[in-house]
Design a protein that fits this description.
The protein is α+β, with helices and mostly antiparallel strands and 868 residues long. The protein has five domains: 210 residues, no CATH class; 183 residues, no CATH class; 47 residues; 219 residues, no CATH class; 189 residues, no CATH class. 57% of the residues lie in helices and 16% in strands. The chain contains 27 helices and 22 strands. Strands 13, 14, 15, 16, 17, 18, 19, 20, 21 and 22 form a ten-stranded mixed beta sheet that branches. Strands 3, 4, 5, 6, 7, 8, 9 and 10 form an eight-stranded mixed beta sheet that branches. A hairpin with a 2-residue loop joins strand 18 and strand 19. Helix 2 packs antiparallel against helix 7. It starts with a helix and ends with a helix. This is ABC transporter permease. Its main location: membrane. InterPro entries: ABC3_permease_C, MacB_PCD, Macrolide_Exporter_MacB. It is found in: Cell membrane. Belongs to the ABC-4 integral membrane protein family.
Length: 868
C-alpha cells in the first residue's frame, strides 16, 4: 500500500512532466484503435450491403467471379436463354428473376462529366428487379418504362445536382445511349460510393449484353419456410447439377463479395497498424528518457526511502506503478481519441467519394481491450530499465547526491554490441545488393534493415559524441560561447541524446528510404519509356476499362484523314499453349497487336525479328518461357483460346519467329501475335477489346495531332490521351501520391519523436535548474539562455536527422539494386527532398525548444540558485 501511495504522490507531483509521455501513448493507441474501428466499420458497412443485395439463391455462369471485373470482351458472361424458366420450376422457389448487370460502362451528364465515383468504386448498369427492392426504394419518379428512360441512384443524383427529366448518357461496348431520368432510387443501407443506373430489362439486355432473352444471373427467392440451402439444392438439381452453373446462397454470395473486398481492407488495415507500431517504437524512447530523467532527479528521495527500509523491489515497483498509471491514462484517452480518428477518416473518405455513414460506426469489444493492453504493456516495458536502475541506487550514494552513476563497462559492452549489429546489418545489405534473385535479396534486405536499425539505436550514445561535435563545428560554433554551451549540454549525457535522436531517426530513415525507392522507380520507368516507347500518344482508361469499338473507330479514322500516321491496337487474349512435345503449359496472356506495334514499342529481341511475329501463323515468346519449356526459334506451338477454365477449340499451330528479352520493363514477359491471327483463334463474340491503343503522328505534326486526338475522344471521358511527357508525369504523380500517403502516416511517428525532444529538454531544464541560476547570476542573459536551449534542441534534431537520412538512403539504394533485377535499373537520390527534410529537422528542433526555452528564461535567479 505504501508503494501505491508513494507512486501516486510522485506521479501527480510530476504530472506536467508526464503529460508529453501520456500524449505519445495517447497518439499511438488512438492510431491503433482508430484503424480497428475504421476497418471494422467498413467491413460492417459492406457486409450489410452485400447481404441486402444478394438474392436467396443466385445462379451465375460457371466462369463468373473469376476476378476480372471488366471482361476483356467488354460484355459480362451470360446464362443460356432457358435458365430463367427452368429456375422458376425448382421446388421451393417463390419467384425467379433474370438479372442484367455490367460494370463495363461509363455514365456522363449533359456537360460530359463522368458520374462515376472517384474513389475507385464501380459504376454499375442493369435492370430494375424485385430483388433490388431489398436494398433500394424509389423515392422520386418511377422505374424505367422504355429505351428513353433510366433510373439513377440518389447519391449520384445529389452529388451531381441531377433531377427528374435531366438527360444522361451511358457508354458501353455496344455504343452510347442517351435517356432521361425517370426515377431516383435511394439505398436503404449505406452505399459506399457506387454509381448505379437502371434500364428496363429489354433495353438492358440489348444495350449491355447485345442480345435479348439472356441474363448475367438469375435471382431466386425462396417460399416461406424453405431454407436457402434447401432451395439451392433444388435449383441445382433443376438446372443440371453443380458443374453446370455457379450456385450461391445469400450468405455465400455475401461472403464471396466480402472476401474479394477483404483482401484490400486487410492490406490497408495492417499497413496502418504497421505505422502505429512505428509510433509505439518511437514512443518507447520518449518514455525511457522520461523515466530515466525522473529517476535521476529523485536520487536523494530514493536514497531516503532505501535508508528507512524500502527494498529494491519496492523502489522498482514504485516506478513501474507510475508507468502503469501513465499507460492507463494515455490508453483510455487514446481509445476515445481513436473513435474520433475513425470518424475523421470516414469523413475524409467521403471527400474522395466513398460515402460511409457515421451512424454505422462499429466499435467491437476487442478494440478498447487491444488499445489498453498495448498502451499499458508498451509503457511498462519502456519503464522497466529505468525502474531497474532506480532499484540499484545505493542509499549512501544517493544521500550524498552523487546521482545514479553510469557504468563505464556497461557502456563499452553496449557500444561493442551496437557496432557488431551495425556491421552485421551492413553485410546483409551488401549481400542483398549482390543477390541474383529478388526473393533471396528481399530476405537479406529485411535482415539488414532490422540489424542496422537496432545497431544504430544501441550505438547511438557512441555516435552522439562524434556526430554532435561535427555538427557543432558547422552549426553551433558561429554562436560563440552560447553555441559551445549548447554543444556541451548535448554531449553531457550521450545516452539521453542518443535515445532522443534515435526516436527521430526511425521516422526519417523510412522517409529517406521510400523517397529513394520512389525516385528510382520514376527515373527507371522514365528511362525505359525513353528507350522503348516509339509511339507519340497512348490512350487508355485509368480504371482498367477496355476501349469501346466506337472510341477505337474514332481513333482509327484519324489515319484516313491524315491526322495520324498510324494507330496500333493492343488486345490481351487468354490462351492455353501446347509445345511440340505435347506438354501443356500454364495459362498465358498473349498480346494480339497491330504490326505497327513493333515500331511503337522497341522491345529487345534475343533471337529473330519482332516484326516477323506479326506475320501469318507466327508469334513471339518470352526468353524465360523459351528456357523453361525448351522452345527455340522456328518451333511450332499450338495456341487455343482460353475461356475461364475451359479451352475453346483445338487451337491453331503458330511458329515462333522471335524471342524477346526478359530484361525489359514495359511488356515484360509478353507474347505477341497479330490481330489477324487472334481473330482466327478467338470466336468473334469473345474477341477481346483493346486494352490500350497507340498513335504515331506524322513528322512535325505531333502538337496538332495531340489536340485533334483529344477532340476526337472528348465524348469518352473515361479514356485519357497522353503523350510521352503526360505519361511520365502521370507515373510521377501516382508514385508521389502514394508516397505522400506514407509520409502522412509516418508523420505520427515524427510527431511522437518531436514530443520526445520537447520532453527531454523540459526535464533537462528542470535537472539543470541550479546550473541555469548560476549562469544567469554571472551574466548570461535570458535571450542567451533561450538561444542556448534552442541550439541544443537543433543539434539533437539534426543528429537524429543525419543518422536517419543516412540510414534510409542506404536502405533505399539497396532496395533499388533489387528492383534492378526487375528491370528498374536507375538509382536516383532525391537530394532536394533529403535536404528539405534535413533543414526541416532544424526547424523541428527550434519548435520543440520553444516551451522549454521560454520556461527556462522565466526562472527566478535566486530561487534557481537555492534549488537543491
Amino acid at each position: 500500500m505504501t508503494v501505491v501511495k508513494t507512486s501516486m504522490r510522485n506521479f501527480f507531483a510530476h504530472k506536467g512532466r508526464m503529460a508529453l509521455s501520456a500524449i505519445a501513448v495517447l497518439l499511438s493507441v488512438a492510431f491503433v484503435s482508430g484503424t480497428l474501428v475504421f476497418t471494422d466499420t467498413m467491413n460492417s458497412t459492406f457486409d450489410k450491403l452485400f447481404a441486402a443485395t444478394s438474392a436467396d439463391v443466385t445462379v451465375s455462369p460457371k466462369n463468373a467471379g473469376s476476378g476480372e471485373e471488366n471482361p476483356r470482351s467488354g460484355k459480362p458472361e451470360t446464362l443460356p436463354a432457358d435458365t430463367l424458366e427452368r429456375a422458376r420450376q425448382a421446388e421451393g422457389a417463390k419467384r425467379a428473376e433474370g438479372v442484367v448487370l455490367s460494370q463495363s460502362v461509363t455514365v456522363v451528364n449533359e456537360e460530359n462529366e463522368n458520374l462515376g465515383a472517384s474513389s475507385g468504386a464501380p459504376t454499375l448498369a442493369g435492370n430494375w428487379t424485385q430483388n433490388d427492392r431489398r436494398s433500394m426504394e424509389i423515392t422520386s419518379g418511377h422505374s424505367p418504362r422504355g429505351p428513353t428512360e433510366v433510373m439513377l441512384d440518389a447519391d449520384t443524383a445529389d452529388k451531381h445536382d441531377l433531377k427528374l427529366g435531366d438527360e444522361i448518357r451511358t457508354i458501353a461496348v455496344t455504343g452510347d445511349r442517351t435517356a432521361k431520368i425517370s426515377g431516383i432510387a435511394t439505398f436503404k443501407v449505406t452505399n459506399p460510393g457506387a454509381a448505379i443506373v437502371y434500364f428496363d430489362t429489354e433495353t438492358a439486355q440489348k444495350f449491355l449484353l447485345g442480345a435479348t432473352g439472356v441474363y448475367t444471373n438469375v435471382a431466386v427467392t425462396a417460399e416461406s419456410g424453405v431454407s436457402h440451402e434447401v432451395l439451392k439444392k433444388n435449383v441445382t438439381g433443376q438446372l443440371g447439377g453443380a458443374g453446370a452453373f455457379k450456385y450461391e446462397t445469400q450468405q455465400e454470395a455475401a461472403e464471396a463479395n466480402a472476401d474479394d473486398l477483404g483482401s484490400f481492407l486487410d492490406v490497408m488495415k495492417y499497413a496502418m497498424l504497421g505505422f502505429a507500431g512505428i509510433a509505439f517504437l518511437v514512443g518507447i524512447f520518449l518514455i525511457v528518457n522520461t523515466f530515466s530523467m525522473l529517476v535521476a532527479q529523485r536520487t536523494r528521495e530514493i536514497g531516503l526511502m532505501r535508508a528507512i527500509g524500502s527494498s529494491r523491489k519496492q523502489i522498482n515497483r514504485s516506478v513501474l506503478f507510475e508507468a502503469v498509471m501513465l499507460g492507463v491514462i494515455g490508453s483510455v484517452l487514446g481509445v476515445a481519441a481513436g473513435v474520433g480518428l475513425a470518424v475523421g477518416l470516414m469523413q475524409l473518405m467521403g471527400m474522395v467519394g466513398m460515402e460511409l455513414d457515421t451512424s454505422e460506426l462499429t466499435v467491437k469489444a476487442t478494440t478498447p481491450v487491444i488499445g489498453l493492453v498495448l498502451g499499458i504493456v508498451v509503457t511498462v516495458l519502456a519503464a522497466y530499465l529505468p525502474a531497474r536502475r532506480a532499484g540499484k541506487v545505493s542509499p549512501m550514494a544517493a544521500l550524498r547526491d552523487s546521482g545514479i552513476s553510469s557504468d563505464g563497462r556497461a557502456g563499452r559492452i553496449r557500444a561493442a554490441i551496437g557496432l557488431l549489429l551495425t556491421a552485421g546489418g551492413g553485410l546483409a545489405l551488401v549481400a542483398a545488393s549482390q543477390a541474383d534473385e529478388a526473393s533471396a535479396g528481399a530476405s537479406m534486405l529485411g535482415l539488414g534493415v532490422l540489424l542496422t536499425l537496432v545497431g544504430f539505436v544501441v550505438v547511438g550514445p557512441l555516435l552522439a559524441g562524434f556526430v554532435v561535435r561535427g555538427l557543432s563545428v558547422v552549426v553551433l560554433r558561429m554562436f560563440g560561447s552560447v553555441g559551445r554551451l549548447a554543444e556541451r549540454n548535448a554531449l553531457r549525457n550521450p545516452r539521453r541524446t542518443g535515445a532522443t535522436g534515435a526516436a527521430l531517426m526511425i521516422g526519417l530513415a523510412l522517409v529517406a528510404c521510400l523517397s529513394v525507392v520512389g525516385s528510382s522507380m520514376v527515373a527507371s520507368a522514365t528511362d525505359e519509356l525513353d528507350k522503348s516507347v516509339g509511339a507519340d500518344f497512348i490512350v487508355q482508361s485509368d480504371n482498367g476499362q477496355p476501349i469501346t469499338p466506337a472510341a477505337a473507330k474514332k481513333m482509327q479514322q484519324m489515319t484516313k484523314t491524315g491526322e495520324l500516321e498510324h494507330v496500333s491496337e493492343y488486345k490481351i487474349v487468354d490462351s492455353q499453349i501446347r509445345t511440340e512435345s505435347g506438354k501443356l503449359t500454364d495459362a498465358e496472356d498473349v498480346t494480339a497487336a497491330s504490326p505497327t506495334y513493333a515500331q511503337d514499342l522497341r522491345v529487345e529481341v534475343v533471337e529473330g525479328k519482332l516484326s516477323d511475329a506479326y506475320g501469318e501463323n507466327s508469334m513471339s515468346i518470352d526468353e524465360e518461357f523459351a528456357k523453361q519449356y525448351k522452345v527455340g526459334l522456328g518451333d511450332e506451338l499450338t495456341v487455343a483460346f482460353k475461356k475461364g477454365k475451359r479451352v475453346d477449340g483445338k487451337g491453331v499451330p503458330l511458329t515462333v519467329k522471335a524471342i524477346t528479352s526478359s530484361e525489359t520493363v514495359v511488356d515484360n514477359g509478353a507474347f505477341y501475335l497479330s490481330i489477324a491471327t487472334a481473330e482466327r483463334l478467338v470466336p468473334a463474340d469473345q474477341m477481346p477489346l483493346n486494352q490500350i491503343m497507340f498513335g504515331k503522328a506524322k513528322d512535325g505534326q505531333a502538337e496538332a495531332a495531340y489536340t485533334a486526338l483529344k477532340q476526337q475522344l472528348d465524348p469518352y471521358p473515361q479514356y485519357k490521351v497522353r503523350d510521352q511527357a503526360d505519361f511520365k508525369q502521370t507515373l510521377k504523380d501516382q508514385i508521389g501520391a502514394l508516397l505522400n500517403i506514407v509520409y502522412g502516416l509516418l508523420a505520427l511517428a515524427i510527431i511522437v519523436a518531436v514530443l520526445g525532444v520537447v520532453n527531454t529538454l523540459a526535464l533537462s531544464v528542470v535537472e539543470r535548474t541550479r546550473e541555469i541560476g548560476l549562469m544567469r547570476a554571472i551574466g548570461l542573459s535570458r535571450r542567451q539562455l533561450r538561444r542556448m536551449i534552442r541550439l541544443e534542441s537543433v543539434v539533437i534534431a539534426l543528429f537524429g536527422a543525419l543518422l536517419g537520412l543516412g540510414l534510409g538512403m542506404g536502405w533505399g539504394a539497396t532496395a533499388q539494386k533489387l528492383l534492378a533485377l526487375e528491370g528498374l535499373k536507375v538509382l536516383e537520390i532525391p537530394w532536394p527532398t533529403i535536404l528539405i527534410v534535413f533543414a526541416g529537422s532544424a526547424v523541428v528542433g527550434l519548435v520543440a525548444a520553444l516551451v522549454p526555452a521560454f520556461r527556462a528564461g522565466r526562472m527566478n535567479v535566486l530561487n534557481a540558485i537555492a534549488t537543491d
